[in-house]
Amino acid sequence: MSASQKRSGNDKRDEVRARAEAMRMDAERRARRQRTLIVAITAAVVVVLVVGVGIAVQRSRSQAAQDAAGPSGLSTNGGLVLGEDDAPVTVTTYVDFMCPACKAFETENGALLDELRGKGEIKVEYVPVAILDRFSQGTRYSTRSAGAAYCVVGSDPELVPDFVSNLYENQPEENSTGLDTGQLVTIAQALGVSEEGVRCITDGTFDGYAAAVTEKASQEGLQGTPTVEVDGTVLDDLSKQGLVDMINARN
To answer: Which residues pair with 228 in a beta bridge?
Structure first.
């Protein structure tokens, strides 16, 4: 075989190998594209499922908030409004009865709010919420105490300020089990809460409503307690002077 024939044969083998290599690389590229597409589709499906579950959970919570029954005569916030109907200013307080800062606010400003309410200068809206259940070792004290307050709202609304004050006077420490239901009943009975209200507390009748009010407030932006609003404007300075200044600015 001549040298030229040998070169021609080598060239053909090189060409075949080159074509084979090109085909292999092309196949690998197609496989990579397919894997990328599968991963992308899988990720998209996961996102859709997660979003779908989130929407379903949120709808379920929203529906629970709508379905939970509370006492009559409450505001749209789920609060009890005390004071003259024509009072020019409304002070709204969102409180958790296990919240030390809520107790501090009540201690500093409770008497002032009662005084201004008695003079007809303000209305006070109490909105009990339950955001600190995680600090009561599984007893859901925040929910139970808020539910008890709603029981008093339903049976003896005139005793709500005294019941709230007594809950703060007997406030348990965070990360404790909180007051048990019997202790909540004892506080209510000492204040003269009716048998209807006592039975409501014992049965936990409004615990679900307290949870629903909390969920609604959280959806609307509630981030912590105490949250105090004066005519719908959040009060940043929770001192007595800050409260007075905000009320005067609204009069």
So the answer is: 93
